[in-house]
Amino acid sequence: MSNQVKPIRVLVLGCGNMGASHAMAYHTNPGFEIVGLVSRGKSKEVLNARMGNKYALFNDMDEAMEATKPDAVCISTYPDTHEKYAVQAFEAGCHVFIEKPVADSVEGAERVIAAGKKANKKLVVGYILRHHPSWEKFIELTAELGKPLVMRMNLNQQSDGAMWTLHRNLMNALSPIVDCGVHYIDVMCQMTRSKPVQVYAIGARLTEEIPAGNYNYGQLQIRFEDGSVGWYEAGWGPMMSETAFFVKDVVGPKGSVSIVAKEAGAAGKSSSIEAHTKTESIRFHHADLTKDELFAKEDTWINLEDEPDHQELCNREQAYFLKAILEDLDLSAHGEDAVNSLRIAFACDESVRTGQVVKLN
């Protein structure tokens, strides 16, 4: 436990998919001590049973904060509650781990960042791909492709049962291209290291089961200052196709780098949380030609069979959160990146609603 005298006392807010994974990370990391689990429904009882019924249960944050006086709060609730809970946690003197997106508006995200700075406490945002060695490798390899880049990515999810319920609930606050898109916009910004200058997006409402102003299929396009372009596509629901739902592909003047997930990309896997982070192998295609204009090199395959699973990635996220607190890491760039990717995602949302290209300042 290094020189840490006592564990960081953490309150877990939201006990669904991601909340449960983060709670398991705290449960197995001696640097943390869970002081309570908070949810409105039965998910906290189910989660507590998985962890040996060791922890106090609460129905709301106010009651839990008063009873436990935590050092840190983990927020994995629906996005429209993120800002309120994060600001409340900071005002109580807590560090905050928050699932993406930081808030359900850019202004809300900026208020969260400001509250963290005012309290002088750490804010770590759940950009899980930043802790994935295969995605780090993917981003690193794209630097060998030259500029401009063409970045092609999607994650369509054919969902039913509990997953469709989750997707419907998420769409009460956000569109799929905002909720999921922030991850991949963040990746594109890391790949180009260039300023995004304009976005255009399209969307379609394929079900009456979501709010009238929202859409459950969207595709966004980003143009960067260095001439790079990227698109990202996300659709949720029982009507979605599982053909070509998993595309992670980057092309540059010198070739292309692609994630090839044979297992995760198989039919029936599009709504599997486990499959969303799997990479399995990376294919590096070299554009070099011989004097006869034939390919000079065979494609290079990088096998990634021993990659971390979803729980291990959450363990790594929480290890980073602990390190940030104990070593007083400067997370200002981390917060700025989170707000930036959200700003771009909401500009795409605006483009869907208006049908116009949106220029970014």
Helix content percent band: 25-40%
Number of helices: 12
The 3D shape can be described as globular
Distance between the termini: 45 Å
Give the C-alpha Rg.
21 Å
What is the averaged pLDDT score? 93
Order of helices and strands: EHEHEHEHEHEHEEHHHEEEEEHEEHHE
Structural class: alpha/beta
How much β-strand is present in the residues? 15-25%
Based on DSSP secondary structure assignment, what is the total number of beta strands? Answer: 16
Which stretches are low in confidence, meaning pLDDT under 50 for 5 or more residues running?
A: none
Report on the biggest sheet: 10 strands, mixed
How would you characterize the overall build of this protein?
It is built from twelve helices and 16 strands. It is an alpha/beta fold. The strands form two sheets. Strands 7, 8, 9, 10, 11, 12, 13, 14, 15 and 16 form a ten-stranded mixed β-sheet that branches. Helix 1 links the parallel strand 1 (8-13) and strand 2 (32-38). Helix 1 packs across helix 11 (310-326) and helix 9 crosses helix 12 (332-354). The longest helix has 23 residues, at 332-354. The model has no long low-confidence stretch (mean pLDDT 93).
